[in-house]
Design goal:
Belongs to the UPF0352 family. This is UPF0352 protein GBAG_2804. With about 80 residues, the chain is an all-alpha fold. The chain is about 70% helix and about 0% strand. It has helices at about 10-25, 30-50, 50-70. The radius of gyration is 14 Å and the shape is globular.
Length: about 80
């Protein structure tokens, strides 16, 4: 069942586009991009979420990430 976001698609797409532009500007390879984004997620969780909720949020985030990854043979 799809989740309803409190943020507009336009807002999400705008931020995604800006983040992608920064990575492209620096010609960042995929592995480094994933490292940087992973560190950013970790930092956000550690600095913006109550310690009692961090593991649960990280688990939910990881599950959502796994669910969103396509298994097609594009690469």
């Amino acid at each position: 069942m799809p989740q309803i976001s409190r943020y507009s698609d336009e807002r999400v797409e705008e931020l995604l586009s800006e983040l992608a532009s920064v990575l492209e500007k620096h010609q960042t390879p995929t592995d480094l991009s994933l490292m940087v984004l992973g560190n950013m997620v970790t930092n956000l969780i550690n600095t913006s979420v109550a310690s009692a909720q961090r593991r649960s949020l990280a688990r939910s985030f990881a599950e959502a990430l796994q669910a969103s990854v396509s298994e097609d043979k594009a690469h």
